[in-house]
Amino acid sequence: MSEEASTPVSPIERYMARMVAALQRLARSDDPNLTFSRLIDVMGRGSHRLLILVFTLLNMVPGPPGFGGTIAWTTLGIALAMIMRWPIRLPTLIGDRGLPLNLLLKLSERVAVAARYAARFSRPRLRWLTGAAATIPYGVFVIVVSLVMTIPIPFINAIPNVGLCVLSFSMLNRDGLGAVVGVTISLLGLGIAAAAIFGAYELGMAALGIVT
């Protein structure tokens, strides 16, 4: 038996293979048009943790004005559904928005390759931080970070989103240590965002003072 065949596949690799296969089936279908709601249907309306990762990855893709905010609200809704144990359903205003299937497929294929490399460092450990008991704290944290990411101030969302991406990746891979790293990155990003918001407020007040 070869070394590659004997190497166990990590949980994150299985999730990524599932995501790529689902998008490839959609791309080969008679109706390859992709929307937010259809992406959720393809991945499964009960796949909360996987979809949080998918949408944090999507938030790294440049999009038109308002795209990042839509992604943040969608991620928030998925986290709320996860806490409440609801199947994921989006309002029509968000659900009917189109997504670039080919771009998402290429992104997922690259992430699947990256997951194989990341699995060398990220592995199941401290599982109590990623198990069922962590679902509510995880969901609440995602909601809080996502709320901040809905604020339309340029560049403040990047670091919190990277943290959410690391966190969701680690939750799927049952890596408690990685989850701690993801939370730390998000908190750092939130601190920078708070400083940026406070700075914008102070500048605004100073400008009003000059005018008056």
UniProtKB/TrEMBL annotation:
Keywords: Membrane, Transmembrane, Transmembrane helix. The chain crosses the membrane at residues 70-88, 126-149, 155-172, 179-201. InterPro entries: ExoD. It holds the Pfam family ExoD. PANTHER family: EXOPOLYSACCHARIDE SYNTHESIS PROTEIN. This is Exopolysaccharide biosynthesis protein. It comes from Paradevosia shaoguanensis.
